[in-house]
Write a structure and sequence with these properties.
CATH architecture: Alpha-Beta Complex
Order of helices and strands: EHEHEEEEHEEE
Number of domains: 1
CATH topology: Fumarylacetoacetate hydrolase, domain 2
Distance between the termini: 14 Å
Oligomer: single chain
Number of strands: 9
Structural class: alpha+beta
Largest sheet: 5 strands, antiparallel
């Protein structure tokens, strides 16, 4: 489980030259999210080519229920708390993601430009994990809370 910020795009982003300001202009809002990480590679003995072949070890995405407009948010300073079974297991701030979560989105848009691919309106872009991933097992309940954005809970069955 990884707690992340989800960017909901209202306008396309196409590099090269996409900046954090461009990401803010193209984003309708931000939502708390979980990325459920998984891999088909046994024992996580994984290298970059394996990660690419494994779709970046991303299995699922779960979004919060409320989108907050991005215009007044300083995403570097947004705090996140991750709980597992009612106990805090990690915490961090948005700045843990590339110094600014929107910088990660800008990087992606610029990287995809080499393949003539744009990030399109309506797409959901995850910023990357604010803290290290936590293992999940059947029965575990996770809650991620972002200051000013709300919380999201998920139970594994």
């Amino acid at each position: 489980m990884e707690g992340e910020l989800a960017f909901i795009l209202k306008d396309p982003l196409k590099g090269p030259g996409v900046t954090i300001a461009d990401v803010y202009r193209a984003t309708e809002g931000i939502m708390p999210a979980f990325e459920i990480v998984d891999s088909r590679i046994r024992d996580w003995k994984i290298k970059l080519p394996d990660t690419i072949a494994d779709n970046a070890s991303s299995a699922r995405l779960v979004l919060g229920s409320r989108m907050v407009p991005i215009k007044d948010l300083d995403l570097r300073l947004i705090g996140m708390v991750l709980e597992k079974n009612g106990e805090m297991v990690s915490s961090g701030a948005g700045a843990a993601v590339w110094g600014h979560p929107a910088a990660a989105v800008a990087w992606l848009a610029n990287k995809l430009a080499a393949f003539d691919i744009a990030l399109e309106a309506g797409e959901i872009i995850l910023s990357g994990a604010v803290t290290a991933a936590e293992n999940a097992s059947a029965g575990d309940v996770f809650t991620v809370s972002f200051y000013g954005l709300g919380s999201l809970s998920l139970k594994f069955i």
